[in-house]
Amino acid sequence: MYKGDIMREIYYPSADGKNTVHACIWEPEGQIKGVVQIIHGMAEYAARYAPFAQFLNKNGYLVCAEDHLGHGKSVQSQKDLGYFNDRHDYNIVLSDIDTLRRTVQKEHADLPYFILGHSMGSFFCRNYIARYGEGLASAVIMGSGFKSMSTLNAALFFVRLNALFCGWRNRSKFIKKLAFGAYNKKFKPNRTPDDWLSVNAQNVDDYREDGLCGFDFTNNGYAVLFSVIKNACKKSTVNAVPENLPCLFVAGADDPVGDYGKGVKKAYNKFKKAGVKRVEIKLYENARHEILNDNCAPQVCGDILEFITGITK
Question: Looking at CB atoms within 10 Å, which of 9, 99, 268, 270 has the fewest?
Fold first, then answer.
C-alpha cells in the first residue's frame, strides 16, 4: 500500500490544560521535500484533507493537521462540538497549532515548513503567521476574507448578550443566522442550506451527511470565531507578518466568506500595503467556498503545489 494512504494519528495536551488534541500526519515515500501544516475550518476536521494530503505526499511533502478544540477527535463528547475552551480564547487554539508545528519540526528540523489555513482556519493562519511566522517558508491563505471592526464588534456584542441569558454552551439560531443567513441567497433556488459550500453537489451532500461536519456552534464557538477574525483584520496583526514571508491567497470567486472576491482582494491589498514583499492572489471562477472539494480542486492543488515548489527551488 502507498505510504501516503496511511494516516498516522497522534495526541498531545492542549494549551487549555484540560483537553487532548488529536492530529493527523501523512508521510510520503522516499525523500521528503518539505512539510505542509493544514489549519482546518469551522465545523469540520483534519482528516477531511486526506485527498489533498495524499496529493502532496505523491509530490514529496509530509502533511500534518490538528483537530481544533471543539472539533473532530479533539472532543470528549458530542456536546463539546463547537465549544473551544472555557476562557473563550482563540490564543489557546493558536498555541495548539504551534505545538503540532514544534512536534513535527523536531523530526524534520532541516526541511522547509509551509502553513495553509482554510476558512476559519485562514483567520487562525493569519494570526499565526503574525505571531509565529519567522522560520516559515510560506503561507497559503484559503477561503478567507475581510470584515470591518464595527461588524465584528456588533457580532461579538450579540454573542455575549445571548451567552449572558442562555449560557456559553447555548446554540443560538439567531447568532447562526446573523453569521451565515445571507450565504445561500446568491445560489437560489437552493437545493440545501449549504449550497454555498460548493458547486459540486456530491461534496455538499457528503458534508451534510458527516456527523463531524456542519454542527451548530455554541456561543463560545462564535465568540472565538468572531474574535480570531477581528484580530486577523487588525492593522497591527497584518503589520506583524514577516515581510519576507511569501503568501498566497486562494478562494472561489463565488465564495460568500470572501464577499465574492472583494474581501479576499481587500485582505491581499492590506498585506501588500503592510510591506509583505511577495503576495499573490488567485480567484477561481464558478467556484464557491470549499475549493479543495469543488470542481476546481485539481487546478487549486496544482497551483498550491507550484507555489510551494517555487519556494523550495
Answer: 9
Cite the DSSP H helix spans in 78-119. 90-107
C-alpha to C-alpha distance for 29 and 103, rounded to whole angstroms: 20
pTM exceeds 0.90, yes or no = yes
Identify the CA nearest to 287 among candidates 143, 189, 184.
143
Where are the strands (E) in the chain, listed by range? 7-13, 20-26, 34-39, 61-66, 113-118, 138-142, 247-252, 279-284
Residue 118 bridge partners (DSSP): 142
274 CA to centre of own chain: 22
Q: Is 242 left (phi over 0), alpha (psi -120 to 50) or beta?
A: beta
**What residues have CB less than 8 Å from 292, skipping those under 6 apart?**
49, 51, 52, 118, 142, 300, 301
Whole-number Å distance between alpha carbons of 111 and 201: 38
CA dist., res. 249 & res. 265, Å (int): 9
Spatial separation of the C-alpha atoms in residues 138 and 118, rounded to whole Å = 15
